[in-house]
TrEMBL record:
GO MF, one example: S-adenosylmethionine-dependent methyltransferase activity
Family: Belongs to the class I-like SAM-binding methyltransferase superfamily. gTMT family.
Region SAM motif III, annotated ranges: 156-165
Protein name: Cyclopropane-fatty-acyl-phospholipid synthase
Protein keywords: Membrane, Methyltransferase, S-adenosyl-L-methionine, Transferase, Transmembrane, Transmembrane helix
Classification of source organism: Bacteria, Bacillati, Cyanobacteriota, Cyanophyceae, Nostocales
TM helices/strands, residue ranges: 241-262
Sequence segments annotated as region (SAM motif II): 129-137
Residue segments, region SAM motif I: 66-75
GO terms for biological process, alphabetical: methylation
The organism's place on the tree of life at top rank: Bacteria
Keyword Transmembrane: yes
InterPro entries linked: Erg6_SMT_methyltransf, Methyltransf_11, PiNMT-like, SAM-dependent_MTases_sf
Organism name: Tolypothrix tenuis PCC 7101
């Protein structure tokens, strides 16, 4: 990962994670609003529901040693550790996130079964065959080398273990290449959220095949999660959030002002919420 991109991602999450937790809680990912996106529910419950729906979709009923790639402040890591009575390890580029996740683990009495490290997902500091569940929820979009990222996930996965990857994608391009306007829309999203680029779900499936992942399955849940961004937009302009934005710094303010980019991306079918799972 280039030093510049690494620093941009780190600084973005160092600055914004505290405000996100204060307004939204510990889960830094989309919510699930039913298959067609019409279910009305509490915004935090929708995020928990996404985790549960992903586990059900991937047919995960147990886990002993979990790796959360792009762990944020430990939302998924600690939820999964408690649910499965498992050990959980989370990695992030943000020291602020790693420290906060560690604090949260202590409060939940999960310190003995969890650890949070600052590490690059493309060069993980773990031995081969270390984890029986590798979980990556909305971090793949930050990876400058998608092949290397998935190769690393596969390397640290135990034989018989499962990879679940959920990431932002653009629409499939088999039948029509991206237009100039779509490319500009994506570029604007990249600039705001420190992304090198995104690819389509079929391209991820091709990489998964290339690295010899077995029993590969994919799904597009864009419709189920698209309402999330409208709820985020509404929450960003409450007095509490506005004050938090002013104290969080310019990059966080720009991120809040640009939330409509993601909402419009879903509306026009450009942005897709892609799921991939497979076994080693």
């Amino acid at each position: 990962m280039s030093t510049t991109l690494y620093q941009q991602i780190q600084q973005f999450y160092d600055a914004s994670s505290g405000l996100w937790e204060e307004i939204w809680g510990e889960h830094m990912h989309h919510g699930y609003y039913g298959p067609d996106g019409t279910e009305k529910k509490d915004r935090r419950q929708a995020q928990i529901d996404l985790i549960e729906e992903l586990l059900h979709w991937a047919e995960v009923e147990t886990a002993e040693n979990i790796l959360d790639v792009g762990c944020g402040i430990g939302g998924s890591s600690l939820y999964l550790a408690e649910k499965f009575d498992a050990k959980a390890t989370g990695i992030t580029l943000s020291p602020v996130q790693a420290n906060r996740a560690t604090e949260r683990a202590q409060k939940l009495n999960l310190s003995d079964r969890s650890q949070f490290l600052v590490a690059d997902a493309q060069e993980m500091p773990f031995a081969d065959n270390s984890f029986d569940l590798v979980w990556s929820l909305e971090s793949g979009e930050h990876m400058p080398n998608k092949i290397k990222f998935l190769q690393e996930c596969y390397r640290v996965l135990k034989p018989g273990g499962k990879l679940i990857m959920v990431t932002w994608c653009h629409r499939p391009i088999d039948n029509a290449p991206l237009t100039d306007d779509e490319r500009k829309h994506l570029h604007d999203i990249y600039q705001v959220y420190c992304l090198p680029y995104v690819i389509s779900l079929p391209e991820y499936a091709a990489i998964a095949n290339q690295i010899s992942l077995k029993n590969i399955r994919t799904a597009d849940w864009s419709q189920a999660v698209a309402p999330f961004w409208d709820f985020v937009i509404d929450s960003a302009f409450t007095p509490k959030a506005i004050w938090g934005l002013l104290t969080a710094g310019w990059t966080t303010i720009v991120g809040a002002l640009s939330l409509g980019l993601m909402s419009r991306g879903y509306q026009r079918g450009l942005i897709r919420f892609g799921l991939l799972c497979g076994d080693k």
